[in-house]
C-alpha cells in the first residue's frame, strides 16, 4: 500500500495543486492516477473541515461519486471500497450540514451508503476510526437536516439505519440522532411508540453523565429533547398519568447539579406550565407549594414549551410575530371602536406571506384568527366573522399539531355559532353539529374540557331541533363519567364538579327532561339515576356484592375484591400534602402523583377484570347501570316522588310499584321559582339567623309557595293513584329542591282544620338516589334480633347544655346502651363502636366547612369525626342512626347539590339503613324532647308494629315525635321542620 498524502493543515494547498496536475496527466492511463484522485477527494474533504470552504466539499462529493461510479473493483486500484464509501458519507454529511442545494437527493444517498456499510458486511473491512468518521457525521447530518421545528419527517430508512448504527457504535451522538429523529416524527405523527423509544434513548444519554463532571453538549441536547417530548405528549394525549410523568421528569432534570443556568431556566418555564395545568385540572399545587403563574391555555405558551434549544433553531420569526399579535389581541377589548379596524390591519401585516419549512409557520395565523373573532364581537362586522371562519377552517386543515387542530376546532365552532345566530344558515348549522362531534371526541384535550363542549353540543342541537340531540346528550353523559375517573380522589372529583358552570351541571336533568318530552319516561329515570350522586355511585360500585361471582370463579372474585379495596383506599385518600415524599416512591414523586399513578394502574386492571367477569355465564349485566325495572323496585314499600328541575322543562315523576311512572309537567316558571325559594331561605339563614322572627316568616312563606308549586299537584296525583293517606312516600329531589323542606310544605287547607302540612298526610323520607334506597333494603347479613337492638350513644355534653337531658332519655330507652361520652368519645373509639351496634345516637356539635363537604364532621373529644372517615367505614349490619346534631342533612355551601354530600347520606352509604338528620342548626333543648317520643314509638310493640324491623319504624316514629314537638309551647316553625328522615 502506498503512503497516503498527509491531510494535515499546512500542506493541503500544495498537495492539492500537485495532485490536480498529476491527475490531468495520468488519469486515463495510470492506476496511480485513480489512487491520487481518491487522495485529492480525501484532502478536499479534510480541507473543507478546516477552512469551511463550500466549494471544497462540493468537489469532494463530486470526485468520490465519480470514483464509485466508474471504477470497479476499487480494490484493484488500492482503494478499499468501504473506505471510499465511508468518506463519501462523511462528505455528504458535511455538505448537508453546510446547506445542500439538493437536500432530498443527498440525504437519500447518504442514508443508502450508510445502510450499505452497516448491512453489507463492510463493517469488518473498516477501521474503527473510519466507521466512526462515517456514522457520527451521518448522525449529525440527519439530526441537523430534520430539525424539531421543521415540517419534514425523517425517512424511515434513515431511522432504521441509525438504530443499527447505535448498536455498533458506542457514541452518544449516534444515540442522540436516533432519539432526535424519533422526536421529530412524534411531533408530527404523534405515535406514542416513537415517544417511548426516543425518551428511553435520551434518558440513557443523560444517565451516562459522570457525577462531578460537566454535561457534554450531547447530554444537554438530550435534556432539551426530553423537555420537548414530555410537553408535546401531554398536549397531544391529555392523560393524567402523562401530566405526572412530565412533572416528575422535568423536576428530576432541573435538579441535575451540573445543569447550566440557562438550561435550568428553560426547564423551569416548562415545569411551571405543566404544574399550572395540574392545578387547573385538580387544584393541586406543585413542588414549591405555590400556585404556578397562569401562562397555560394559549397557543403561544404551548409552542414556547416545545421550542427547540438554540442549537436546533434560531429565534423563530413566527414566534416573534405571534408575540406581537398576542399583544394586539390583548388591546382589542380596550380600544375604541374606531381603532379596532386599525388593530386588525396591523395584525394582518404580521402574517407570513407563504408556507415555510418551519413547523411553526402558522402560529401568527392562529393568533390572527382570534383577533378576527374578537374584532367581530366588538364591532358586529360580518366580514371579520367570515374571515375568522375561513382562517380557522384553513388552519384546521393544515396543522399537524393535535392541540392546534383541537383549538382551531373550538375557534371555528365559536365563529360558526355566532354566524348561525345572525344569519340562520342551514349549512352553518350542519357544519357546527359535525364539528361538535369531532371536537368532543378528540382525545388530545382533557375529558373535562370536552365534557363542557359536549354540553354545548346538546344545548345547540336541542335549541335547533337537530337530529343529533340524543347522540350529543349520550356523549356528554359519558364524558361526565370520564371526567370523574380522570381524578384519583373523591375530594378532587368534587372539585372538578364544582368548577363546572351551574347550567352545565344540570346536564342529566336536561337530558331526562328531553326524554320525557319525547315519551321515553323509563329511559329518563335511568338517566337521572346515572347522572346524579356520581361520587356515591362510584363508591357503591367499589363495594358491589361479589357473591354470585365468588360462586362462579372464586379466584377472580378475590382479585376483583382486592382491586376494589385498593381503589377505594386511593379514592378516600387526602392528597393535600403534595410536597411530602413517599418513602417507597421514586425521588421527586409527590403524594398526589403516587395516588394518581396507582389509581390509573388499578383502573386499567379493574376494566380488564370486569370484561372477564361479564363474559361469564349469568354475569353479563355485572356492574352495568340498573335498568328501569330494577330502579322501579325502589317503590316497593311506597311511591317515590322524583322532582326533576330542568331549565328546559321541569317534571315531577311518581314511581309506583304496580303502575307505570306517572309524570306531570310543571309551570314554565317552575325552575326559576325553585331557585328563588332556595335563595330566599339560605339568605334569611345567613343574614337573619335561624332564631330570628324574620327567618320564621321567610320559612313560612317558602313552605306555602312550595305547597302551591309541588305539594298540591303531588297530593292530587297521589289521590288519583289511590295512594292512601298516612302511606310512606320517598322524595328524590334534584338541584335546588335538595335544600328545600318538601316534607313540610303547607299549610294545607283541610276538613281537619288549618295548620296541616304535607307530613300530616304522608310519612315522608328522602333518598339521594333510587339505588341508595334499594341498597338500604337489602337483607341484613345478620338476622333481625328478637330483642331491641343494641344502641351506641355518643355524646359531648361539655359544649351542649341540653345534652345531659338527652343522654338520660337515650339511656332509659329499654335497650342495651353503650355510652361513649366526653373523653371516651374519640373518633377512633366511635368508629370501633359503630361496628358492634345496630343503632347509634349522636349528641354533639355538627360542623360544616364551606366548599369542603368531605370535611363536614361531628365534634368529638380529641378531634372531629369527618364525613370522609365515616365513608371509609363499612358497617353492613348497621341499621339506624339518629344524628342529633346541627347540619347533618345540610349541604355544605359551594358543594354540588345533586351529589348529596352530607353526614346523613354518609351514614346511609356506610351501612345504616335509616338515618335521621337536620337541615340546619338545631335547638339544644329539642334533642331530649324529640328523642323521648321517638324511642317511645320505635320500641313499642303495639298493634301494627310487631314483626316490622325497628329501623323501618323510624320514619313513622319521627313523624310521631315531631308532632309532639310542634305542639310544645314556644317551638317555632324552623325547629320542627328541621328534622328529616333518610332511607328505608
Give a written overview of the molecule.
This protein has a 6-stranded mixed sheet with strand order 7-6-8-12-13-14, with helices on both faces. Strands 3-2-1-4-5 form a 5-stranded mixed sheet, sandwiched between helices. Strands 9-10-11 form a 3-stranded antiparallel sheet. Among the domains are: 209-314, no CATH class; 316-503 and 511-516, Serine Threonine Protein Phosphatase 5, Tetratricopeptide repeat, CATH 1.25.40; 628-772, Nucleotidyltransferase, domain 5; 788-983, Rossmann fold, CATH 3.40.50. The radius of gyration is 37 Å and the shape is elongated. It is α/β, with parallel strands linked by helices. 58% of the residues lie in helices and 7% in strands.
Ends apart, CA distance between termini: 102 Å
Shape: elongated
Which sheet architecture does the biggest sheet show? 6 strands, mixed
The low-confidence runs, each spanning 5 or more residues with pLDDT under 50, are: 1-14, 22-29, 309-315, 576-588
- The value of Rg in angstroms is 37 Å
CATH architecture of the domain at 788-983: 3-Layer(aba) Sandwich
Portion in helices: 55-70%
Broad structural category: alpha/beta
Neighbour order of strands in the largest sheet: 7-6-8-12-13-14
CATH C-level category of the domain at 788-983: Alpha Beta
Please state roughly what percent of the residues sit in beta strands, choosing from under 5%, 5-15%, 15-25%, 25-35%, 35-45% or over 45%: 5-15%
| CATH fold label of the domain at 788-983 | Rossmann fold
Count every helix, treating DSSP H or I runs of 4 or more residues as helices. 41
Mean pLDDT: 87
- Strand element count: 14
Pfam families: CHAT
Protein name: CHAT domain-containing protein
InterPro entries: CHAT_dom
Domain CHAT: 703-983
Amino acid at each position: 500500500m502506498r503512503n497516503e498524502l498527509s491531510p494535515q493543515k499546512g500542506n493541503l494547498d500544495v498537495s492539492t495543486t500537485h495532485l490536480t496536475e498529476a491527475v490531468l496527466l495520468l488519469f486515463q492511463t495510470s492506476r496511480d492516477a485513480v489512487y491520487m484522485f481518491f487522495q485529492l477527494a480525501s484532502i478536499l474533504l479534510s480541507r473543507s473541515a478546516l477552512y469551511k470552504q463550500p466549494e471544497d466539499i462540493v468537489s469532494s462529493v463530486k470526485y468520490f461519486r465519480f470514483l464509485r461510479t466508474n471504477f470497479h473493483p476499487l480494490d484493484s486500484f488500492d482503494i478499499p471500497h468501504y473506505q471510499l464509501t465511508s468518506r463519501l458519507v462523511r462528505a455528504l454529511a458535511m455538505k448537508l450540514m453546510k446547506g445542500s442545494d439538493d437536500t432530498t437527493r443527498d440525504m437519500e444517498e447518504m442514508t443508502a451508503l450508510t445502510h450499505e456499510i452497516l448491512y453489507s458486511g463492510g463493517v469488518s473491512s473498516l477501521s474503527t476510526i473510519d466507521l466512526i468518521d462515517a456514522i457520527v457525521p451521518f448522525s449529525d447530518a440527519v439530526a441537523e437536516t430534520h430539525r424539531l421545528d421543521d415540517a419534514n419527517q425523517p425517512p424511515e430508512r434513515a431511522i432504521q439505519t441509525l438504530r443499527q448504527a447505535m448498536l455498533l457504535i458506542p457514541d452518544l451522538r449516534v444515540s442522540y440522532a436516533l432519539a432526535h429523529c424519533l422526536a421529530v416524527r412524534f411531533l408530527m405523527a404523534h405515535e406514542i411508540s416513537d415517544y417511548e423509544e426516543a425518551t428511553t434513548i435520551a434518558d440513557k444519554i443523560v444517565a451516562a453523565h459522570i457525577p462531578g463532571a460537566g454535561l457534554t453538549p450531547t447530554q444537554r441536547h438530550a435534556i432539551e429533547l426530553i423537555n420537548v417530548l414530555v410537553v408535546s405528549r401531554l398536549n397531544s394525549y391529555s392523560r393524567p398519568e402523562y401530566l405526572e410523568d412530565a412533572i416528575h421528569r422535568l423536576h428530576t432534570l432541573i435538579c441535575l447539579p451540573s445543569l447550566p443556568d440557562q438550561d435550568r431556566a428553560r426547564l423551569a418555564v416548562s415545569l411551571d406550565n405543566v404544574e399550572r395545568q395540574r392545578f387547573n385540572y385538580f387544584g393541586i399545587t406543585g413542588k414549591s407549594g405555590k400556585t404556578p403563574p397562569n401562562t397555560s391555555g394559549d397557543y403561544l405558551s404551548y409552542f414556547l414549551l416545545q421550542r427547540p434549544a438554540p442549537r436546533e433553531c434560531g429565534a423563530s420569526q413566527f414566534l416573534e410575530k405571534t408575540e406581537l399579535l398576542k399583544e394586539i389581541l390583548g388591546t382589542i377589548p380596550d380600544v375604541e371602536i374606531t381603532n379596532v379596524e386599525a388593530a386588525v390591519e396591523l395584525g394582518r401585516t404580521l402574517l407570513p406571506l407563504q408556507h415555510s419549512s418551519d413547523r411553526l409557520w402558522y402560529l401568527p395565523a392562529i393568533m390572527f384568527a382570534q383577533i378576527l373573532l374578537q374584532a367581530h364581537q366588538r364591532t358586529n362586522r360580518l366580514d371579520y366573522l367570515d374571515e375568522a371562519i375561513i382562517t380557522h377552517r384553513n388552519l384546521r386543515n393544515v396543522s399537524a399539531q393535535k392541540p392546534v387542530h383541537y383549538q382551531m376546532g373550538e375557534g371555528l365552532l365559536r365563529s360558526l355559532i355566532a354566524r348561525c345566530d345572525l344569519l340562520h344558515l342551514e349549512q352553518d348549522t350542519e357544519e357546527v353539529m359535525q364539528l361538535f362531534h369531532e371536537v368532543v371526541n378528540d382525545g388530545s384535550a382533557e375529558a373535562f374540557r370536552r365534557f363542557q363542549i359536549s354540553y354545548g353540543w346538546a344545548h345547540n342541537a336541542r335549541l335547533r331541533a337537530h337530529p343529533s340531540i340524543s347522540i350529543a346528550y349520550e356523549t356528554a353523559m359519558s364524558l361526565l363519567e370520564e371526567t370523574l375517573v380522570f381524578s384519583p380522589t373523591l375530594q378532587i372529583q368534587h372539585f372538578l364538579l364544582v368548577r363546572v358552570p351551574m347550567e352545565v351541571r344540570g346536564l342529566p336533568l336536561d337530558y331526562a327532561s328531553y326524554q320525557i318530552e319525547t315519551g321515553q319516561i323509563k329511559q329518563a329515570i335511568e338517566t337521572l339515576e346515572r347522572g346524579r350522586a356520581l361520587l356515591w355511585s362510584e363508591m357503591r360500585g367499589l363495594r358491589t356484592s361479589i357473591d354470585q361471582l365468588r360462586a362462579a370463579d372464586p379466584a377472580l372474585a378475590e382479585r376483583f375484591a382486592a382491586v376494589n379495596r385498593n381503589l377505594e383506599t386511593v379514592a378516600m385518600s387526602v392528597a393535600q400534602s403534595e410536597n411530602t415524599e413517599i418513602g417507597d416512591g421514586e425521588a421527586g414523586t409527590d403524594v398526589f402523583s403516587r395516588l394518581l399513578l396507582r389509581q390509573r394502574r388499578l383502573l386499567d386492571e379493574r376494566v380488564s377484570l370486569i370484561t372477564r367477569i361479564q363474559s361469564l355465564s349469568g354475569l353479563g349485566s355485572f356492574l352495568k347501570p340498573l335498568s328501569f325495572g330494577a330502579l322501579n323496585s325502589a317503590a316497593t314499600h311506597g311511591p317515590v316522588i322524583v322532582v326533576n328541575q330542568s331549565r328546559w322543562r321541569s317534571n315531577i315523576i311518581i314511581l309506583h310499584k304496580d303502575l307505570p311512572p306517572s309524570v306531570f309537567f310543571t309551570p314554565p316558571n317552575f325552575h326559576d321559582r325553585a331557585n328563588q325559594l332556595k335563595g330566599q331561605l339560605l339568605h334569611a339563614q345567613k343574614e337573619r339567623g335561624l332564631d330570628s322572627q324574620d327567618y320564621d316568616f321567610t320559612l313560612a312563606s317558602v313552605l306555602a309557595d312550595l305547597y302551591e308549586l309541588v305539594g298540591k299537584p303531588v297530593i292530587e296525583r297521589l289521590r288519583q293513584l289511590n295512594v292512601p293517606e298516612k302511606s310512606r312516600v320517598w322524595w328524590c329531589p334534584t338541584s335546588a329542591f335538595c335544600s328545600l323542606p318538601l316534607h313540610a310544605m303547607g299549610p294545607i287547607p283541610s276538613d281537619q282544620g288549618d295548620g296541616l302540612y304535607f307530613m300530616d298526610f304522608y310519612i315522608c323520607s328522602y333518598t339521594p338516589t333510587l339505588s341508595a334506597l334499594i341498597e338500604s333494603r337489602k337483607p341484613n347479613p345478620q338476622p333481625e334480633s328478637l330483642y331491641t337492638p343494641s344502641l351506641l350513644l355518643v355524646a359531648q355534653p361539655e359544649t351542649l347544655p341540653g345534652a345531659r337531658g338527652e343522654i338520660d332519655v337515650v339511656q332509659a330507652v329499654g335497650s342495651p346502651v353503650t355510652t361513649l361520652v366526653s373523653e371516651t368519645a374519640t373518633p377512633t373509639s366511635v368508629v370501633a363502636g359503630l361496628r358492634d351496634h345496630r343503632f347509634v345516637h349522636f349528641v354533639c356539635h355538627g360542623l360544616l366547612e364551606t366548599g369542603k363537604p368531605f370535611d363536614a364532621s361531628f365534634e368529638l373529644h380529641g378531634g372531629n369525626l369527618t364525613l370522609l372517615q365515616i365513608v371509609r367505614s363499612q358497617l353492613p349490619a348497621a341499621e339506624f342512626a339518629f344524628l342529633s346534631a346541627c347540619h347533618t342533612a345540610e349541604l355544605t355551601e359551594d358543594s354540588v347539590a345533586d351529589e348529596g354530600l352530607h353526614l346523613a347520606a354518609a351514614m346511609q352509604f356506610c351501612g345504616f339503613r335509616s338515618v335521621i338528620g337536620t337541615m340546619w342548626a338545631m335547638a339544644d333543648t329539642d334533642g331530649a324532647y324529640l328523642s323521648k317520643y321517638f324511642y317511645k314509638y320505635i320500641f313499642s310493640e303495639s298493634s301494627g308494629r310487631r314483626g316490622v324491623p325497628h329501623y323501618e319504624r323510624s320514619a313513622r316514629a319521627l313523624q310521631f315525635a315531631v308532632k309532639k314537638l310542634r305542639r310544645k309551647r314556644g317551638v317555632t316553625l324552623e325547629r320542627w321542620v328541621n328534622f328529616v328522615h333518610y332511607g328505608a
